[in-house]
């Protein structure tokens, strides 16, 4: 049976309670990447989102970022390696502590936004991320863009990892994600995204923006709930995967 993990970035508000959209999305996914305060969220919201994940049997992951609430963690930043390492340990450690207090293990770590994009192509950044995970939560998986520098760093440092593809993002011919600043970088049509994802899962490849077929080896797929129509998109993805007999389970 074909199976895949379906992950989503959640807890990315700045309110004191879980958003309505997060409440709707959580039962539809198998892994939640929970913001750790540097691009969004707060300690209370982190705890509430972990509780919601536990309620629905969803694997809990940390979603650390650059210290950038102004641009939601999506602006490139130049940070000294020691500072980046400390930032990561601080964020991962905070969510890990919340998990322990609620009796659940931290399942994975997936860095956010500009930091994710940098780690995908820059080996030094990828190694800093992998080393931080290894040193503070060695039992957790590192979520890596398929075929990227992240995967190489995790393998070199002996960190458990899963490779990730994106259902609702456009791909460049080199297998990286098209920057959000470019038109068409985010896909919004639920039917088209669901159809594309089924093909990705079954054929392990994706068509880049220029038509190039990019091979992908992945075990988890990210869908975004913070874009317009995100909840409807995820519902359609889940409906289509269920219809196709593609099993959904955490990696």
Walkthrough of the structure:
This protein has helices at 20-25, 43-55, 81-101, 113-121, 123-136, 149-157, 190-203, 230-243; strands spanning 3-10, 31-35, 59-63, 108-109, 141-145, 161-166, 205-207, 213-215, 220-223, 247-248. Helix 7 (190-203) packs across helix 8 (230-243). The strands form two sheets. The chain has a seven-stranded parallel β-barrel, surrounded by five helices. Strands 7-8 form a two-stranded antiparallel ribbon. The chain is globular. The protein is an alpha/beta fold and 251 residues long. Strand 2 (31-35), helix 2 and strand 3 (59-63) form a beta-alpha-beta unit. It has a single domain (3-248), classed as Alpha-Beta Barrel (TIM Barrel). The model has no long low-confidence stretch (mean pLDDT 95). The relative contact order is 0.16.
């Amino acid at each position: 049976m074909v199976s895949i993990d379906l992950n989503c970035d959640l807890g990315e508000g700045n309110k004191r309670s879980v958003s309505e959209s997060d409440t709707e999305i959580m039962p539809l996914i198998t892994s939640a990447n929970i913001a750790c305060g540097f691009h969004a969220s707060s300690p209370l919201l982190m705890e509430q989102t972990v509780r919601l994940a536990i309620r629905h049997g969803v694997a809990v992951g940390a979603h650390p970022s650059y210290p950038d609430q102004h641009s939601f963690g999506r602006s490139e930043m130049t940070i000294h390696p020691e500072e980046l390492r400390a930032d990561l340990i601080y964020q991962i450690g905070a969510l890990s502590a919340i998990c322990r207090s609620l009796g659940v293990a931290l399942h994975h770590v997936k860095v956010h936004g500009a930091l994710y994009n940098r780690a995908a192509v820059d080996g030094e950044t990828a190694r800093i991320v992998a080393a931080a995970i290894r040193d503070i939560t060695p039992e957790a998986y590192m979520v890596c863009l398929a075929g990227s520098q992240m995967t190489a760093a995790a393998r070199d440092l002996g960190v458990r990892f899963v490779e990730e593809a994106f259902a609702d993002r456009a791909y460049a011919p080199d297998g990286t994600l098209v920057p959000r600043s470019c038109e068409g970088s985010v896909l919004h049509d639920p039917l088209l995204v669901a159809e594309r994802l089924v093909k990705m899962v079954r054929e392990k490849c994706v068509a880049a923006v220029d038509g190039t077929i990019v091979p992908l080896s992945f075990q988890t797929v990210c869908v975004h709930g913070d874009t317009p129509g995100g909840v409807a998109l995820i519902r359609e993805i889940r409906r289509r995967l269920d219809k196709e007999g593609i099993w959904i389970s955490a990696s």
